[in-house]
Amino acid sequence: MTDRQDSLSSLDTFPKLLLDHGVNRPARVALREKDLGIWLTWTWSEVVGNVRALACGLASFGFERGDKVAIVGDNRPELYMAMMAIQSLGGVPVPVYQDSVAEEMQYVLEHAEVKFAIVEDQEQTDKVLSVQDRCPNLTGIIYNDPRGMRHYRQSDLFAYKEVQARGRHFDKDNPDYFLDEIAKGKGADVGVMLYTSGTTGRPKGVMLSHDNVIITSRNANARERFRDTDDVLAYLPMAWVGDHAISYGQALCAGYSVSCPESSDTVMIDLRELGPTSFFAPPRIFENILTNVMVRMEDAAWFKQKLFKYFMDIAKTTGIRLLEGQPVSFVERLKYGLGQVLVFGPLKDALGFSNLRVAYTGGEAIGPELFEFYRSIGVNLKQLYGQTEATVYVTIQPDGQVNSESVGTPVPDCEIKIDESTKEVLYRSPGVFVGYYKNDEATKETKTEDGWVHTGDAGYIDDVGHVRIIDRAKDVGKLNDGTMFAPKFLENKLKFHPNIREAVTFGDEKDFVTAFINIDLESMGNWAERNNLNYGSYVDLANRDEIYAIIQSNIEESNRSLAADPSLAGSQIKRFLILHKLLDADDGELTRTGKIRRKIVFERYDDLIQALYSDKDIIPIEAKVTFENGKEGVIKADLKIREAEVYASVQKAG
Question: Does domain 477-643 fall into CATH 3.40.50.2000?
Answer without folding.
Answer: no
